[in-house]
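User: Hey, quick favor. My workstation is busy. Could you predict this chain's structure for me?
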Amino acid sequence: MVKLILLGLLAGALFSSTFILNEFMSDAGGHWFWSASLRYIFMWLIITALIVFQHGFGRVKALLAIFIAHWRFWCVTGGIGFGVFYTGICFAADHVAGWVVAATFMFTVVTSLLVLLAFGQRFDKKFIIYALLVFLGVVLVNVSEGLRASEVQLAAASMTDMLIFGALPALIAAFSYPIGNQLVWQVSFNSRKHTAELRRMRDPAAHDDVAELETTAKPAAQSKKPPSQLALLIAKIPALETDLLQDAFNKVWLMTLGSIPYWLVLGLIIRPDMPSTSQVFNTLLVAILAGVGATSIFLFAREQAQTSSEVAGVDSTQASEVIFALIGGILLLGNTVPSLMGLIGIGLIMLGLVLFAKDG
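Assistant: No problem, here it is.
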């Protein structure tokens, strides 16, 4: 268990590089658009190389065929889960410290519950208490930083600007990320169920596979009311006859490719100045450390967990991202230590995340 926790903390440290390097690039004058878009271009190239190395060019051709057959779904999923998500993170980094962005983004644990609820899932009411802890912590972190900004700049509008241009984009990111993840989970679930049903048609003995999938994340009691617009949209999520979506790298590859149109359109709208060599290098570093390294280590630690408590322990290490981002900002960027209110907010966020992981 100690080894898994250490791996989770290592992943948290690498994940925190996103917030530190984004703040650094912002301070250096680099446009947030390049910090966001170049990361996913680099990620797609790196993951493509890894897939080819492991499975050959045939795997890439098969994934490309899946993408072309359902390009609308992957563009929507990648555009929301990666595009809108990371746009919010990088835009917020232009206006507040990296640790504040990290702390605010931790609200994604709460928004994940709301997304699951929208997709027909149910959860224990005690999670509402945990969600309120995280929410209160996020509020304290942002108010404390807003008050400090107002004192430094001697302007009453500083807090309002920070909340609108810093906290709000990070909160939008906190919603977008679980929406994208849930869409990919749903298409993966639909595909497993579809494949199992086909297997049952060929072999009646495979009935148990279908029954097990039907009980996975089963919605609450069915209602006789007409389906909502959201339910109709969820019903349109495709079911693919493939086992490729059971590999996390394959799903990330498809989502990343699906985000490219979003970045192209956003770039045409914004038309930013070209990035500096330093910004390109730092964005590549983020792609390697956070996009590939941290994700791989975190998924490896989860896969090595033997019990639900071990999985929960690994998940709880995500709270360390705030601490690493805070320490990195102080040591590398000269950021000031948070006020007592900010430290209390960080404590509440971490407590909420640990409780979520413990009882999740």
